[in-house]
Amino acid sequence: MAEVAAIDPYRAGSIQLALSSNMKDTTRMPFKILQRILAAALMLIATATLANAQYQDRYGQQRESRFGGGDDGQRNIAGQFDYYALVLSWSPTYCAESDGDDLQCNRRDGRRFNFVLHGLWPQYDRGWPQDCRTPRRPFVPQPLIDSMLDIMPSPRLVIHEYRKHGVCSGLSPDAYFSLARRLFRSIRIPQDYLNPFEQQTVSPRDLASELMRANPALKPENFAIVCGGQGNRLKEVRICFSKSGQLQACGSNEDQRRMCSASRVFVPPVRSTARDENGAPASRFDSPRANPLPAPRMDTYERRL
What we know:
- This protein has twelve helices and six strands.
- The protein is of the alpha+beta class and 305 residues long.
- The chain folds into two domains: 2-54; 79-304, Ribonuclease T2-like (Ribonuclease Rh, Chain A, Alpha-Beta Complex).
- The strands form two sheets. Strands 2-1-5-4 form a four-stranded antiparallel beta sheet. The protein has a two-stranded antiparallel sheet with strand order 3-6.
- The radius of gyration is 25 Å and the shape is globular.
């Protein structure tokens, strides 16, 4: 009986069949053996349930799997994906929810950001890859990190995004961030969102219309607006591109009803007071000067990814 109890719990069903066929009277099976078989079965069910619950998308909605129900072993491979999601984060919302990001939120030069580059995410039509294996350990050189801070104002975010998402593009860090910058620059921000000093409350439909007016090539199937948190704040806009950098229809990951189902969205103000050498408002693409303050915390970003 001791040998039966030590068998792998994954074979619990086989154990039961073997016992049934080899014992003349199964009704006399020792109670401890039945307990162990039942416990093994319950453990398998609990493990599967926990694993399924851990697969959640980047905004908290539960999914069956980040692989969309496909073969996990065949899909998490660098360079093998369907499209990119360019993720533009509304900086005032991040700053309102963070514990203190000096480079982005508490700059001494008075500069504040509107939409910043959160990341460029390889996506499957359903699900997404991440942390893909590469021949060498992912490494982002410091000069490249510094060059991205004007649109991605967090050194740790630059590193994190390449290690988690960039490696799945199959591109080198230079090529990946060059593509991310090109796609970011291709999107025109509507005038009302460049440097609003007053808070706004808008409908997702109105915001979508403003984005399409500013970007005539943009169609409803090419992007999704993300909201959430206190007062349904504007969090992000996700815009879908092909591998070659052309606008394309998004997959099921960017389901607008799931990304933001609110009828109204609260838009915290930017309130940037920074000026260029001519006294004009600083461009959102101006490179920030060296900042003596400590690097921003990354834990808030990681919770949202």
